[in-house]
Amino acid sequence: MQKTQLLSGNEAIALAARHAGCRVASAYPGTPSTEIMENIARHKDRIVGEWSTNEKVAMEVAIGASIGGARSLCAMKHVGLNVAMDPLMTFTFVGATGGMLIIVADDPGMHSSQNEQDSRNLVKFARAPLFEPSDSQEAYEMARAAFDLSEKYRVPVFLRTTTRTAHSSSPVTFDDVDPPQPERIPYVKNIRRTVAVPAFAKLMRVDAEKRTVELTTAAEESGFNRIEPGDKRLGLVTSSIAYQHVKEVFPEFSILKLGFSNPLPLELVRKFAAGVERLVVVEELDPFMADQMRAAGIAVERPATALQMMELNPARLTALRGELLGDVEAPAVTASPEGLPTRPPVLCAGCGHRGVFYTLKRLKATVTGDIGCYTLAAFPPLDAMDTTICMGASIGTAIGMRKAGHPGRIAAVIGDSTFFHSGMTGLLDAVYNKVPIAVVILDNSTTAMTGHQEHPGTGKTLIGEEAPAADIVAVAKALGVRQVRAVPPYDMALLETVFKEALDAEETAVVVVRGPCVLAAKLYLNATPYTVDEDKCVACGACFRLGCPAIIRGEPYGPDGKRFKRNINSPSCIGCDLCRQVCKFDAIYRVGDR
Amino acid sequence: MLAGHDVKKTEVHGMSQRGGSVISQVRYGQDVASPIISEGCSDILVAFEKLEALRWRCLLKSGGPALVNQLDIIPVTVSSGLQSAVADTDAQLEALFPDLHLVDAQTLAKEAGNLRTANIVLTGALARLMQFETTLWRQALEERLPSRLLEVNLRAFEAGYQYAESQG
User: Fold this and answer.
1) How close, in Å, is residue A71 to chain B by CA atoms?
2) Phi and psi dihedrals of A48, rounded to 5?
3) Cα–Cα distance for residue pair A408/A365, rounded to 1 Å
4) Is the pLDDT of residue A470 over 60?
5) Cα A156 to Cα A60, A69, A225, distances in angstroms
6) A155 Cα to chain B: minimum distance (Å)
7) Which stretches of A281-313 are DSSP H helices?
8) Which CATH architecture has domain A2-221?
9) Quick check: do A225-325 and A353-514 share a fold?
10) Which of chain B's residues have a Cβ under 8 Å away from the Cβ of A567?
11) Mind listing the pLDDT tens digit for each residue in A406-425?
12) Which stretches does DSSP call E strand in B50-160?
């Protein structure tokens, strides 16, 4: 029986994995791929899913499952693929047994990432085939097809989404019946295939080249690649979400839609090019297809309209159409007012990270930061972070700055999930190389920014079962750190004492700040809020420098009307006590205490 | 979808969750290609907060209706003193949206029984502005909501719808 549901790209992929008989799935949270594993958890009757420590481990787990003869899936965001490249680069030589699907989710426009990168380049570099869906129906169909292709050609198959295809929802029609799960392919030891020593790797290398030729033929013949005939005056080669924008803006013209885009089916492209007068490539981010086409001698125009950075949308393609054809009419736009205050994301009211950064700033520490909710402390008014580069970089960066001779206090600040992901190796480096830095580990017992997922320290698995909880203090001690303290998040005097000790120590010192995430632990339920005695408030500004969203503007103060007292928005306040501690005028108190 | 249309919905998750500005876009019709609405092209604008209505004015087409919740949530940039508040939000709304529909979703939601149904109050008001049969809206709510929440949300939907109807 056929069913149609409105599904996001991520939901469609999880459903396809179920229907394709995937048995093992591994991932680390990363926007915009996180929901794939969250949805796979709902299919726990058929798929064993896990949150892995990091993407390298996730890739290795999926590789192991494939070698073990089961269909496997591994999902990550683009920077996560960077972490997983090492096992991938050799596994495409080794080759899959059970079909393996790898999802990489790019983030054009960097809606929630530290960089913008076109991961198609990495897929080509790894010599793997690549599918790119342009909506949820394609995400479903391509994910299913990927497992079959993977087993046929003994190579992991990539599905590349973007924020727009992963998170947009569109109708998906599918057979509402679980196909029987394919049997596990029995494991047969064959070291010529699976042990990548040079003697065997040289043979694998030759096999990989032969396979690329076969995959190219598969791409040329694939139903995911098609010419949509139209007006021959202009031919547009496109893929992924860009296809949808092209259909929006250039509906009447000839389109070559590529869904199986690595290896690039150049014969199909040549055939398409021969049938149109002008040829343009519309692709998001790098000129991945255009460069290959030009290298193969296919003439591709170079429009002046810039398409190569940030997310594409119909407005940008309308500008392209204006340049190519000169026939666009801009819709009348009533501009939004200028100078509106921005509304950036902020640490939640009562967040346990707030006091940490307020204190580190007071102590004039240089703070090397990391990836998580706490990255928000970089913004004003907290303004308490110097660097953020990638997962786990906080500690290595601090080591490097200290070794470069940076004087003064240096604190590397890292979250609990990030610490397990890639902070432990940095901490070991600091101890082993005898570097005097403070390492502050923010343990809120969750992977928060991506939506509160479990990790090896929370004591729960993906599906909510109990699990051993790794002990961060014990890990630090085992790595050789001699000064390790654990403190709660809301006592700022204690934080100041303990941080000062760690920052001024002559060896690596660790402080674990331990307290649950406000949202994950629902601390806002049954909370007693705080309030301001406006008679005592002199509008000094100390409390609003905490940057807490529950602290709001109150009555004007003073003759010039430029300063304002503060008050507290009761529904938002969870009563963390930080603002009372910073007020020197005793103007803030817990409701009910006076 | 219940009315037989193709549809695409898009929103951006991630960091925007932590109290940041979030925008969702829905396009429906016979054959929807891009999920993204361009400036000056949206038929309707629904704003859950007044500043955000001003921020996204550019998306609404000329003369298009704007449904705006009467709620001010001061951004931290303003409450911490870093940026200035908008001088007169209400006057700017009147000036920028010739077809403005204001709804106090908070009060209507509380009257329906739960403040957190404010979004469904707005949905009811939106239904009044759109052409779909109300039976389809109610069917959608029944299909999407857990049964224990259905009654209060249907009341909220009615309250929004009736309010919009009373405003003409």
Assistant:
1) 29
2) -90, 105
3) 7
4) yes
5) 12, 13, 20
6) 32
7) 288-295
8) 3-Layer(aba) Sandwich (3.40)
9) yes
10) none
11) 999 999 999 999 999 999 99
12) 66-69, 100-103
- Which of B13, B52, B76 is opposite residue A346, by nearest beta carbon? B76
Residue in chain A nearest B6 by alpha carbon:
A171
A343–B contact, CB cutoff 8 A: yes
Which chain B residues are closer than 8 Å to A544 by Cβ? 79-81
Given an 8 Å threshold on Cβ–Cβ distance, is A344 in contact with B82?
no
| pLDDT tens per residue across span A123-174 | 999 999 999 999 999 999 999 999 999 999 999 999 999 999 999 999 999 9
CB B16 within 8 A of CB B22: yes
Helices (H), A161-265: 163-167, 191-194, 198-221, 240-249
| Alpha carbons A591 and A163: distance in angstroms, whole number | 43
CATH code at A530-590: 3.30.70.20
B36 contacts on A by Cβ (under 8 Å): 164, 245, 313-314
A204 CB-near residues (< 8 Å, 6+ apart): A93, A94, A95, A193, A196
CB contact (8 A) between residue A169 and residue B9 = yes
Kindly determine whether residue A344 and residue B76, on different chains, have CB atoms separated by under 8 Å.
Answer: yes
AA letter at A64: G
CA A296, distance to chain mean position in Å, is 34
Q: What pLDDT band is residue A465 in, cutting at 50, 70 and 90? A: very high
Residues 6+ apart with CB under 8 A from A536: A585, A586, A587
Interface test with A, best of B76, B83, B88, B99 (most A CBs within 10 A): B76
**pLDDT classification of B13: cutoffs 50, 70, 90:** low
What is the dotted CATH code of the domain comprising A353-514?
3.40.50.970
CA distance A541 to A563: 9
Q: Please tell me the predicted confidence (pLDDT) of residue A532.
A: 95
Distance CA A225, CA A216 (A): 12
- Model confidence at A227, pLDDT cuts 50, 70, 90, reads very high
Chain B: closest CA distance from residue A469 (Å): 27
Pick among 3.40.50.920, 3.40.640.10, 1.10.3570.10, 3.40.50.1860: CATH of A225-325: 3.40.50.920
A418 with A487: CB under 8 angstroms? no
Residues A260, A153: Cα–Cα separation, whole Å: 14
pLDDT at B16 (0 to 100): 58
Average pLDDT over residues A318-336: 94
Residues A345-403 have pLDDT tens digits of 999 999 999 999 999 999 999 999 999 999 999 998 899 999 999 999 999 999 999 99
A447 DSSP β-pair partners: A453
User: Which of A110-124, A281-295, A362-376, A553-567 shows the lowest per-residue confidence on average (mean pLDDT)?
Assistant: A553-567
| Of residues A499, A211, A262, the one with CA closest to residue A364 | A499
| Percent above pLDDT 90 for chain A | 93
- List the single range of A517-521, A524-528, A569-573, B62-66 with lowest mean pLDDT: A569-573
Distance CA A566, CA A557 (A): 10
Domain boundaries, chain B: 105-168
Name residues whose C-beta falls within 8 Å of residue A223's C-beta, 6 or more positions apart in sequence. none
Regarding beta strands B45-47 and B66-69, do their DSSP bridges make them parallel or antiparallel, or are they unpaired? parallel
The reported pTM is 0.96
Of A32, A247, A341, Cβ closest to residue B77? A341
Q: Which residue of chain A is at minimal alpha-carbon distance from B86?
A: A340
Q: State the CB neighbour count (10 A cutoff) for residue A252.
A: 9
